[in-house]
Amino acid sequence: MKPTTCFAPAHILLPSEQVPLEQWGCIACDQFTSDRSYWQRAEKTAAGAPSTLNLILPEVYLEDGDADARVEKIHATMQDYAQNVLTRAVDGFIYVERTEQSGRVRQGLVGRIDLEAYSYAEGAVPAIRPSEHTVESRIPPRMAVRRGARLETPHIMMLADDPGCTLIEPIGEKKEQLRKVYEGDLMLNGGHIAGWAVEDPALLAQIDSALNALGSQEAFDARYPQAKGGAPLTLAVGDGNHSLASAKACWEELKKTLTPEQQLTHPARWCLAEVCNVHSPAIEIEPIHRVLFNVDCGAVLLALIAWSDSHAAGICFGDAKQQSFTLAGPHMANVLSFEHPVAPLTVGTIDAFIEYFMARHIEARVDYVHDEPAVRALCRQGGVAFLMPPFEKSDLFKGIVMGGVLPRKTFSMGHAEEKRYYMECRNILGEE
Protein backbone atom coordinates (compact mmCIF):
# COMPACT_ATOMS: atom_id res chain seq x y z
CA MET A 1 0.00 0.00 0.00
CA LYS A 2 1.90 3.03 -1.27
CA PRO A 3 0.55 6.15 0.46
CA THR A 4 -0.36 9.13 -1.72
CA THR A 5 -1.45 11.47 1.07
CA CYS A 6 -0.38 12.35 4.60
CA PHE A 7 -3.04 9.96 5.98
CA ALA A 8 -2.93 6.53 4.40
CA PRO A 9 -4.23 2.95 4.66
CA ALA A 10 -2.32 0.68 7.02
CA HIS A 11 -1.77 -2.93 7.97
CA ILE A 12 -3.77 -2.75 11.21
CA LEU A 13 -3.56 -5.55 13.76
CA LEU A 14 -6.46 -6.62 15.99
CA PRO A 15 -6.77 -9.18 18.77
CA SER A 16 -8.55 -12.50 18.40
CA GLU A 17 -12.35 -12.32 18.55
CA GLN A 18 -12.12 -14.32 21.79
CA VAL A 19 -10.48 -11.38 23.61
CA PRO A 20 -13.20 -9.42 25.49
CA LEU A 21 -13.34 -5.84 24.22
CA GLU A 22 -14.09 -4.44 27.68
CA GLN A 23 -10.75 -5.81 28.87
CA TRP A 24 -8.76 -5.12 25.71
CA GLY A 25 -9.48 -1.39 25.21
CA CYS A 26 -7.84 1.06 27.60
CA ILE A 27 -8.01 4.84 28.04
CA ALA A 28 -5.17 7.19 27.09
CA CYS A 29 -2.06 7.15 29.29
CA ASP A 30 -2.31 10.88 30.09
CA GLN A 31 -5.74 10.69 31.71
CA PHE A 32 -6.41 10.49 35.47
CA THR A 33 -2.81 11.45 36.15
CA SER A 34 -3.66 12.27 39.77
CA ASP A 35 -6.01 9.36 40.33
CA ARG A 36 -4.24 6.06 40.96
CA SER A 37 -7.53 4.47 41.94
CA TYR A 38 -8.74 4.72 38.33
CA TRP A 39 -5.73 2.79 37.05
CA GLN A 40 -6.05 0.24 39.85
CA ARG A 41 -9.65 -0.35 38.79
CA ALA A 42 -8.48 -0.66 35.18
CA GLU A 43 -5.96 -3.32 36.22
CA LYS A 44 -8.70 -5.26 38.00
CA THR A 45 -10.96 -5.00 34.95
CA ALA A 46 -8.23 -6.23 32.59
CA ALA A 47 -6.89 -8.94 34.89
CA GLY A 48 -6.55 -12.36 33.27
CA ALA A 49 -7.00 -11.19 29.68
CA PRO A 50 -4.86 -9.50 27.04
CA SER A 51 -5.22 -5.73 27.29
CA THR A 52 -3.74 -2.60 25.73
CA LEU A 53 -3.26 -1.51 29.35
CA ASN A 54 -0.21 -3.78 29.28
CA LEU A 55 1.21 -1.94 26.24
CA ILE A 56 1.31 1.54 27.76
CA LEU A 57 2.87 3.41 30.67
CA PRO A 58 0.16 5.41 32.49
CA GLU A 59 1.64 8.78 33.41
CA VAL A 60 0.32 8.46 36.97
CA TYR A 61 3.28 6.10 37.56
CA LEU A 62 6.03 8.25 36.07
CA GLU A 63 7.28 9.44 39.45
CA ASP A 64 7.51 5.94 40.95
CA GLY A 65 11.11 5.35 39.89
CA ASP A 66 10.44 2.04 38.13
CA ALA A 67 9.83 3.34 34.60
CA ASP A 68 12.70 1.33 33.07
CA ALA A 69 11.34 -1.94 34.46
CA ARG A 70 7.83 -1.05 33.27
CA VAL A 71 9.06 -0.27 29.76
CA GLU A 72 11.01 -3.56 29.61
CA LYS A 73 7.84 -5.44 30.58
CA ILE A 74 5.80 -3.51 27.99
CA HIS A 75 8.23 -4.46 25.22
CA ALA A 76 8.13 -8.13 26.27
CA THR A 77 4.32 -8.04 26.25
CA MET A 78 4.35 -6.55 22.75
CA GLN A 79 6.40 -9.48 21.48
CA ASP A 80 3.97 -11.92 23.09
CA TYR A 81 0.87 -10.14 21.74
CA ALA A 82 2.35 -9.85 18.23
CA GLN A 83 2.83 -13.62 18.13
CA ASN A 84 -0.14 -14.89 20.11
CA VAL A 85 -2.89 -12.29 20.48
CA LEU A 86 -3.00 -10.03 17.41
CA THR A 87 -4.22 -12.71 15.05
CA ARG A 88 -6.44 -10.57 12.80
CA ALA A 89 -5.58 -7.77 10.38
CA VAL A 90 -7.17 -5.05 8.28
CA ASP A 91 -5.39 -3.76 5.20
CA GLY A 92 -6.87 -0.33 4.78
CA PHE A 93 -8.69 1.88 7.29
CA ILE A 94 -11.03 1.10 10.15
CA TYR A 95 -14.25 3.11 10.27
CA VAL A 96 -15.09 3.67 13.94
CA GLU A 97 -18.28 4.65 15.73
CA ARG A 98 -17.86 5.58 19.38
CA THR A 99 -21.11 5.97 21.32
CA GLU A 100 -20.50 8.20 24.32
CA GLN A 101 -22.44 8.15 27.58
CA SER A 102 -24.57 11.04 26.26
CA GLY A 103 -25.69 8.88 23.35
CA ARG A 104 -23.79 10.92 20.76
CA VAL A 105 -21.96 8.89 18.13
CA ARG A 106 -18.48 10.04 17.13
CA GLN A 107 -17.34 8.84 13.71
CA GLY A 108 -13.72 8.36 12.74
CA LEU A 109 -11.25 6.69 10.40
CA VAL A 110 -8.17 4.90 11.76
CA GLY A 111 -5.16 4.89 9.47
CA ARG A 112 -1.50 5.92 9.47
CA ILE A 113 -0.12 9.45 9.63
CA ASP A 114 3.03 10.19 7.63
CA LEU A 115 5.46 11.66 10.16
CA GLU A 116 7.36 13.28 7.29
CA ALA A 117 4.26 15.43 6.73
CA TYR A 118 4.14 16.56 10.37
CA SER A 119 6.28 18.76 12.57
CA TYR A 120 5.95 20.32 16.00
CA ALA A 121 8.87 22.68 15.38
CA GLU A 122 7.98 26.31 15.95
CA GLY A 123 7.19 28.07 12.69
CA ALA A 124 6.86 24.88 10.63
CA VAL A 125 3.89 24.72 8.24
CA PRO A 126 3.55 21.07 7.12
CA ALA A 127 0.28 19.42 6.02
CA ILE A 128 -0.21 18.02 9.55
CA ARG A 129 0.21 20.41 12.48
CA PRO A 130 -0.10 20.33 16.25
CA SER A 131 -2.99 22.24 17.77
CA GLU A 132 -1.07 23.46 20.80
CA HIS A 133 2.46 24.24 21.92
CA THR A 134 4.46 21.08 22.54
CA VAL A 135 5.98 20.80 26.02
CA GLU A 136 9.18 18.92 25.20
CA SER A 137 9.62 17.61 28.77
CA ARG A 138 6.55 15.44 28.20
CA ILE A 139 8.12 13.64 25.23
CA PRO A 140 10.96 11.49 26.73
CA PRO A 141 8.75 9.07 28.78
CA ARG A 142 6.70 8.27 25.69
CA MET A 143 9.81 7.96 23.55
CA ALA A 144 11.13 5.40 26.04
CA VAL A 145 8.09 3.21 25.35
CA ARG A 146 8.22 3.66 21.57
CA ARG A 147 12.00 3.34 21.12
CA GLY A 148 12.67 -0.29 20.15
CA ALA A 149 9.00 -1.23 20.52
CA ARG A 150 7.52 -3.96 18.33
CA LEU A 151 4.04 -2.39 18.32
CA GLU A 152 2.23 0.90 18.56
CA THR A 153 -1.34 1.51 19.64
CA PRO A 154 -2.79 5.01 19.29
CA HIS A 155 -4.94 7.32 21.35
CA ILE A 156 -4.22 10.18 18.93
CA MET A 157 -7.25 11.93 17.44
CA MET A 158 -6.72 14.09 14.38
CA LEU A 159 -9.21 16.65 13.11
CA ALA A 160 -10.20 17.53 9.58
CA ASP A 161 -11.85 20.87 8.75
CA ASP A 162 -14.53 19.27 6.57
CA PRO A 163 -17.80 21.25 6.73
CA GLY A 164 -19.05 19.45 3.61
CA CYS A 165 -18.66 16.03 5.31
CA THR A 166 -16.74 14.55 2.38
CA LEU A 167 -14.18 12.34 4.14
CA ILE A 168 -15.65 10.20 6.93
CA GLU A 169 -19.41 10.47 6.75
CA PRO A 170 -19.76 8.86 3.27
CA ILE A 171 -17.96 5.77 4.61
CA GLY A 172 -20.40 5.62 7.54
CA GLU A 173 -23.29 5.57 5.08
CA LYS A 174 -21.90 2.33 3.61
CA LYS A 175 -21.02 0.57 6.87
CA GLU A 176 -23.61 -2.17 6.35
CA GLN A 177 -21.60 -3.29 3.33
CA LEU A 178 -18.37 -3.49 5.37
CA ARG A 179 -16.91 -6.26 7.54
CA LYS A 180 -17.42 -5.50 11.23
CA VAL A 181 -14.17 -6.20 13.07
CA TYR A 182 -15.13 -5.32 16.65
CA GLU A 183 -18.03 -4.12 18.80
CA GLY A 184 -18.60 -3.89 22.52
CA ASP A 185 -18.56 -1.78 25.66
CA LEU A 186 -15.38 -0.10 26.87
CA MET A 187 -14.11 -0.43 30.42
CA LEU A 188 -15.03 1.92 33.27
CA ASN A 189 -17.82 3.96 31.66
CA GLY A 190 -16.02 4.44 28.38
CA GLY A 191 -19.20 3.96 26.35
CA HIS A 192 -19.68 1.70 23.33
CA ILE A 193 -17.45 1.22 20.28
CA ALA A 194 -17.73 -0.53 16.93
CA GLY A 195 -15.33 -0.78 14.00
CA TRP A 196 -15.61 -1.84 10.35
CA ALA A 197 -12.84 -2.72 7.90
CA VAL A 198 -12.49 -0.35 4.94
CA GLU A 199 -10.52 -2.33 2.37
CA ASP A 200 -12.42 -1.92 -0.91
CA PRO A 201 -10.06 -0.21 -3.43
CA ALA A 202 -12.90 2.06 -4.57
CA LEU A 203 -13.51 3.29 -1.01
CA LEU A 204 -9.77 3.73 -0.42
CA ALA A 205 -9.58 5.83 -3.60
CA GLN A 206 -12.61 7.84 -2.43
CA ILE A 207 -10.94 8.62 0.91
CA ASP A 208 -7.70 9.53 -0.85
CA SER A 209 -9.53 11.89 -3.21
CA ALA A 210 -11.46 13.58 -0.39
CA LEU A 211 -8.29 14.07 1.65
CA ASN A 212 -6.40 15.52 -1.33
CA ALA A 213 -9.26 17.95 -1.93
CA LEU A 214 -9.30 19.05 1.72
CA GLY A 215 -5.55 19.63 1.61
CA SER A 216 -5.51 21.49 -1.71
CA GLN A 217 -4.36 25.09 -2.13
CA GLU A 218 -7.76 26.01 -3.53
CA ALA A 219 -9.62 24.69 -0.48
CA PHE A 220 -7.14 26.31 1.92
CA ASP A 221 -7.47 29.73 0.27
CA ALA A 222 -11.27 29.49 0.33
CA ARG A 223 -11.42 28.50 4.02
CA TYR A 224 -8.77 30.93 5.26
CA PRO A 225 -8.77 34.01 3.00
CA GLN A 226 -6.64 35.91 5.57
CA ALA A 227 -3.84 33.41 4.88
CA LYS A 228 -4.39 33.05 1.10
CA GLY A 229 -1.37 31.57 -0.64
CA GLY A 230 0.02 30.07 2.57
CA ALA A 231 1.04 26.44 2.99
CA PRO A 232 -2.14 24.30 3.05
CA LEU A 233 -3.18 22.59 6.27
CA THR A 234 -4.78 19.15 5.87
CA LEU A 235 -5.08 17.79 9.44
CA ALA A 236 -4.63 19.15 12.94
CA VAL A 237 -4.01 17.21 16.14
CA GLY A 238 -7.16 17.28 18.28
CA ASP A 239 -5.92 15.06 21.11
CA GLY A 240 -2.62 13.30 21.66
CA ASN A 241 -0.29 16.15 20.66
CA HIS A 242 2.54 14.78 22.77
CA SER A 243 2.11 11.18 21.65
CA LEU A 244 2.41 12.21 18.01
CA ALA A 245 5.38 14.44 18.85
CA SER A 246 7.04 11.46 20.56
CA ALA A 247 6.50 9.30 17.48
CA LYS A 248 8.06 12.06 15.36
CA ALA A 249 11.06 12.40 17.69
CA CYS A 250 11.63 8.63 17.60
CA TRP A 251 11.39 8.61 13.81
CA GLU A 252 13.91 11.46 13.48
CA GLU A 253 16.24 9.50 15.76
CA LEU A 254 15.80 6.24 13.84
CA LYS A 255 16.01 7.57 10.31
CA LYS A 256 19.58 8.74 10.87
CA THR A 257 20.49 5.04 10.94
CA LEU A 258 18.63 4.16 7.72
CA THR A 259 19.51 4.44 4.06
CA PRO A 260 17.36 6.79 1.91
CA GLU A 261 15.64 3.74 0.45
CA GLN A 262 14.86 2.33 3.90
CA GLN A 263 13.48 5.69 5.02
CA LEU A 264 10.82 5.48 2.31
CA THR A 265 9.30 2.25 3.61
CA HIS A 266 10.23 1.75 7.26
CA PRO A 267 6.99 1.32 9.26
CA ALA A 268 8.18 3.67 12.04
CA ARG A 269 7.83 6.51 9.54
CA TRP A 270 4.10 6.36 10.17
CA CYS A 271 1.93 6.53 13.27
CA LEU A 272 -1.58 5.14 13.72
CA ALA A 273 -4.25 7.73 14.49
CA GLU A 274 -7.99 8.29 14.21
CA VAL A 275 -9.22 11.17 12.05
CA CYS A 276 -12.52 12.86 12.92
CA ASN A 277 -14.42 15.77 11.38
CA VAL A 278 -14.23 18.82 13.65
CA HIS A 279 -17.71 19.83 12.42
CA SER A 280 -19.35 16.64 13.70
CA PRO A 281 -21.99 17.35 16.39
CA ALA A 282 -20.30 14.62 18.47
CA ILE A 283 -17.03 16.57 18.63
CA GLU A 284 -17.37 18.78 21.68
CA ILE A 285 -14.72 21.45 22.14
CA GLU A 286 -14.88 23.41 25.35
CA PRO A 287 -12.81 26.41 26.43
CA ILE A 288 -10.38 26.16 29.31
CA HIS A 289 -10.61 29.11 31.69
CA ARG A 290 -7.76 30.83 33.57
CA VAL A 291 -7.90 31.44 37.34
CA LEU A 292 -5.38 33.58 39.24
CA PHE A 293 -4.78 33.05 42.96
CA ASN A 294 -3.14 35.22 45.64
CA VAL A 295 -4.16 38.39 43.79
CA ASP A 296 -6.64 41.25 44.17
CA CYS A 297 -9.32 41.57 41.53
CA GLY A 298 -9.08 45.37 41.39
CA ALA A 299 -5.31 45.20 40.99
CA VAL A 300 -5.69 42.70 38.13
CA LEU A 301 -8.18 44.98 36.36
CA LEU A 302 -5.94 48.04 36.69
CA ALA A 303 -2.93 46.04 35.46
CA LEU A 304 -5.00 44.75 32.52
CA ILE A 305 -5.96 48.30 31.50
CA ALA A 306 -2.34 49.46 31.79
CA TRP A 307 -1.09 46.46 29.76
CA SER A 308 -3.75 47.05 27.11
CA ASP A 309 -2.72 50.69 26.79
CA SER A 310 0.96 49.82 26.45
CA HIS A 311 0.16 47.24 23.74
CA ALA A 312 -2.54 49.36 22.01
CA ALA A 313 -4.97 46.47 22.52
CA GLY A 314 -7.94 48.78 23.04
CA ILE A 315 -9.68 47.14 25.99
CA CYS A 316 -13.17 48.34 26.84
CA PHE A 317 -16.15 47.36 28.96
CA GLY A 318 -18.79 45.32 27.16
CA ASP A 319 -18.58 42.78 24.35
CA ALA A 320 -18.74 45.18 21.42
CA LYS A 321 -15.18 44.60 20.22
CA GLN A 322 -13.38 41.62 18.63
CA GLN A 323 -12.42 39.43 21.60
CA SER A 324 -14.71 39.38 24.62
CA PHE A 325 -14.31 37.59 27.96
CA THR A 326 -15.48 37.87 31.56
CA LEU A 327 -13.20 39.02 34.36
CA ALA A 328 -14.66 37.64 37.59
CA GLY A 329 -13.63 37.95 41.22
CA PRO A 330 -15.16 37.37 44.66
CA HIS A 331 -17.47 40.39 44.40
CA MET A 332 -17.57 41.39 40.75
CA ALA A 333 -17.85 40.16 37.19
CA ASN A 334 -17.31 42.35 34.14
CA VAL A 335 -17.56 41.57 30.44
CA LEU A 336 -14.61 43.12 28.62
CA SER A 337 -13.32 43.03 25.06
CA PHE A 338 -10.30 44.03 22.99
CA GLU A 339 -10.49 46.24 19.92
CA HIS A 340 -6.98 45.44 18.69
CA PRO A 341 -6.04 42.07 20.21
CA VAL A 342 -2.42 40.92 20.22
CA ALA A 343 -3.22 37.29 19.26
CA PRO A 344 -5.67 35.58 16.85
CA LEU A 345 -7.76 34.09 19.71
CA THR A 346 -9.03 35.57 22.96
CA VAL A 347 -7.13 32.99 24.99
CA GLY A 348 -3.85 34.03 23.36
CA THR A 349 -4.37 37.68 24.20
CA ILE A 350 -5.30 36.81 27.80
CA ASP A 351 -2.28 34.52 28.17
CA ALA A 352 -0.01 37.34 26.98
CA PHE A 353 -1.41 39.55 29.75
CA ILE A 354 -1.14 36.80 32.40
CA GLU A 355 2.52 36.22 31.51
CA TYR A 356 3.13 39.98 31.88
CA PHE A 357 1.23 40.11 35.18
CA MET A 358 2.88 37.10 36.78
CA ALA A 359 6.35 38.34 35.92
CA ARG A 360 5.57 41.36 38.11
CA HIS A 361 3.64 39.53 40.86
CA ILE A 362 5.69 36.55 42.03
CA GLU A 363 3.05 35.67 44.62
CA ALA A 364 0.47 34.99 41.89
CA ARG A 365 -0.33 31.49 40.68
CA VAL A 366 -2.44 30.39 37.71
CA ASP A 367 -4.60 27.32 37.17
CA TYR A 368 -6.52 26.05 34.15
CA VAL A 369 -10.09 24.97 34.80
CA HIS A 370 -12.57 23.42 32.31
CA ASP A 371 -15.84 23.71 34.17
CA GLU A 372 -17.45 27.17 34.51
CA PRO A 373 -19.35 26.38 37.77
CA ALA A 374 -16.01 25.23 39.25
CA VAL A 375 -14.47 28.54 38.17
CA ARG A 376 -17.28 30.51 39.82
CA ALA A 377 -16.77 28.50 43.03
CA LEU A 378 -13.04 29.35 43.00
CA CYS A 379 -13.90 33.04 42.57
CA ARG A 380 -16.08 32.93 45.68
CA GLN A 381 -13.02 31.58 47.49
CA GLY A 382 -10.89 34.53 46.39
CA GLY A 383 -9.77 33.55 42.90
CA VAL A 384 -9.76 35.98 39.96
CA ALA A 385 -10.90 34.34 36.76
CA PHE A 386 -10.73 35.01 33.05
CA LEU A 387 -13.77 33.21 31.68
CA MET A 388 -13.19 32.42 28.02
CA PRO A 389 -15.95 32.65 25.44
CA PRO A 390 -17.33 29.45 23.90
CA PHE A 391 -14.69 27.88 21.71
CA GLU A 392 -15.89 28.00 18.12
CA LYS A 393 -14.81 25.01 16.08
CA SER A 394 -13.77 27.27 13.23
CA ASP A 395 -11.41 29.04 15.65
CA LEU A 396 -9.35 25.90 16.12
CA PHE A 397 -8.10 25.77 12.56
CA LYS A 398 -8.06 29.57 12.20
CA GLY A 399 -5.87 29.79 15.31
CA ILE A 400 -3.44 27.20 13.93
CA VAL A 401 -3.28 28.82 10.49
CA MET A 402 -2.92 32.39 11.74
CA GLY A 403 -1.00 31.81 14.96
CA GLY A 404 1.06 28.70 14.23
CA VAL A 405 -0.21 26.75 17.24
CA LEU A 406 -2.87 27.49 19.83
CA PRO A 407 -1.81 28.62 23.26
CA ARG A 408 -1.29 25.89 25.84
CA LYS A 409 -4.54 24.59 27.34
CA THR A 410 -6.81 26.41 24.92
CA PHE A 411 -9.49 23.78 24.66
CA SER A 412 -10.64 20.41 25.88
CA MET A 413 -12.15 17.71 23.69
CA GLY A 414 -14.80 16.06 25.84
CA HIS A 415 -14.45 14.50 29.28
CA ALA A 416 -11.76 12.03 30.33
CA GLU A 417 -13.88 8.91 29.70
CA GLU A 418 -14.66 10.19 26.19
CA LYS A 419 -11.02 10.26 25.09
CA ARG A 420 -9.90 7.76 22.48
CA TYR A 421 -9.20 4.27 23.84
CA TYR A 422 -6.29 2.16 22.64
CA MET A 423 -7.75 -0.51 20.33
CA GLU A 424 -5.82 -1.09 17.12
CA CYS A 425 -2.12 -1.99 16.84
CA ARG A 426 0.54 -1.79 14.14
CA ASN A 427 4.04 -3.18 13.72
CA ILE A 428 6.70 -0.45 13.78
CA LEU A 429 9.79 -2.63 14.03
CA GLY A 430 11.29 -3.57 10.69
CA GLU A 431 9.31 -4.31 7.56
CA GLU A 432 5.52 -4.58 7.66
The helix tally amounts to 13
Poorly predicted segments: none
Helix-strand makeup class: alpha+beta
Subunit organisation of the chains = single chain
The rounded distance between the terminal residues' Cα atoms is 10 Å
What is the number of independent domains?
2
Q: Tell me, briefly, the overall form.
A: globular
Describe what you observe in this structure.
- The N and C termini lie close together (10 Å).
- The strands form five sheets. Strands 1, 2, 4, 5, 6, 8, 9, 10, 11 and 12 form a ten-stranded mixed β-sheet that branches.
- The protein contains 13 helices and 22 strands.
- 31% of the residues lie in helices and 24% in strands.
- β4 and β5 form a beta hairpin.
- The chain is an alpha+beta fold and 432 residues long.
- The chain has two domains: 7-284 and 415-427, no CATH class; 289-387.
Brief overview, please?
With 432 residues, this protein is an alpha+beta fold.
SSE layout and pairings?
Blueprint: E1 7-8, E2 10-14, H1 21-24, E3 26-27, H2 36-46, H3 67-84, E4 88-99, E5 105-114, E6 128-129, H4 140-146, E7 151-152, E8 157-160, H5 169-172, E9 179-185, E10 192-198, H6 201-214, H7 217-223, E11 235-239, H8 241-255, H9 260-265, E12 270-277, E13 285-287, E14 289-293, H10 297-310, E15 315-317, E16 323-328, E17 333-338, H11 346-360, E18 365-369, H12 372-380, E19 384-387, H13 393-403, E20 411-413, E21 421-422, E22 426-427
Parallel strand pairs: 6-11, 8-12
Antiparallel strand pairs: 1-5, 2-4, 3-21, 4-5, 4-10, 5-12, 7-22, 8-11, 9-10, 13-20, 14-18, 14-19, 15-17, 16-17, 16-19
Helix pairs in contact: 4-8
